[in-house]
Amino acid sequence: MNFVIFTAAAIVVIFAAIQLNKYGDVISQKSTWSGAMVGTLLIGGATSLPELTTSLTAVYIDNADIAVGNMLGSNVFNVLILMIFDFIYRKRKVFNTVEQSTHLPVAYTGLVMTALISAALLWRDAPELFNVGIEMYLLVAIYIVVMKTSGNPEEEADEPTSPITLKQGVTRFIIAALVVFVAGSALAVYGDLIAKETGMNASFVGSFLIAASTSLPELVTVLAAFRIMNYSLAIGSILGSNLFNLQLLVITDIFYRKEAILNVADPSNITVALLGLVMIALTIFALQRTAVKRVGAYAIPSAVTVILYFAASYIMF
């Protein structure tokens, strides 16, 4: 029954998060709020609400491993989504077609942030301030600097204006957010029960089962971007979402009042953090390398990424 409820909650989260994206887009189109920054925060926040809700609920039920594993696992799963599509559409050589300068700074930032998380997990007794790990303050500082120094976002193609009014968009956005809140909380609670009843590692449940469920809305975004051949949007949405998720880990640590959350997280979370490091490094390699003529050679980074993900999943299990 716990598996049934967990699966039902995952399905609800996926569909509600898709609606969040839809109505968040309506609000950014119809509102008079200034520009892209508010819209980006709204959409980014909407996409990441399942992760935040699930991790905060995990904190409430005192399961640090699900809270940490969900955030780290979501980032890993996001990169997996991108690399699977890159492998499927390998003949298009997606990474060769996008502007490096647009995505490399964000990718390198993700690499540095994930390295900080990995170091804190390996340290096991990292310094903390007000019961929040010192690495969390560094994550926020890096994020602010990168956001301030980033260039203007790329111009997106004009989208048809939605017939939905602003009031309808706000109302439906709030309803979808509440649904995500309830279903995301259920994911954490029943994921915790599954871990206890089956003897599964809670880090595995958070990093792979729950993280995959909360990250599936990103799959919809990437699929839509590939369909219209907007590969820059696909790559940018994944890399940007990953940075945003790490800021949500900071919020999770703030709410975990006992001590720095990474200091109490199970050492098995290091596997996911290091997997994330390697997967981001492979993404950077795919972005940076010179154009590859042979399709087989081009597909190596994406193929290795997919193999590593499933190997790490088996090891964690």
Topology at a glance:
Layout: H1 2-30, H2 35-60, H3 64-88, H4 94-97, H5 100-123, E1 128-129, E2 132-133, H6 134-149, H7 166-198, H8 202-227, H9 231-255, H10 261-264, H11 269-288, H12 295-298, H13 300-316
Short description:
By secondary structure, the protein is mostly helical.
Structural description of this entry:
This is Cation:H+ antiporter. Residues 3-145, 173-315 form the Sodium/calcium exchanger membrane region domain. This protein has 317 residues and is mainly α. Helices cover 80% and strands 1% of the residues. The chain has helices at residues 2-30, 35-60, 64-88, 94-97, 100-123, 134-149, 166-198, 202-227, 231-255, 261-264, 269-288, 295-298, 300-316, and strands at residues 128-129, 132-133. A two-stranded antiparallel ribbon has the order 1-2. Strand 1 (128-129) and strand 2 (132-133) form a beta hairpin. The relative contact order is 0.22.
Keywords, separated by commas or semicolons:
317 residues; mainly alpha; two-stranded antiparallel ribbon; 13 helices; 80% helix; transmembrane helix
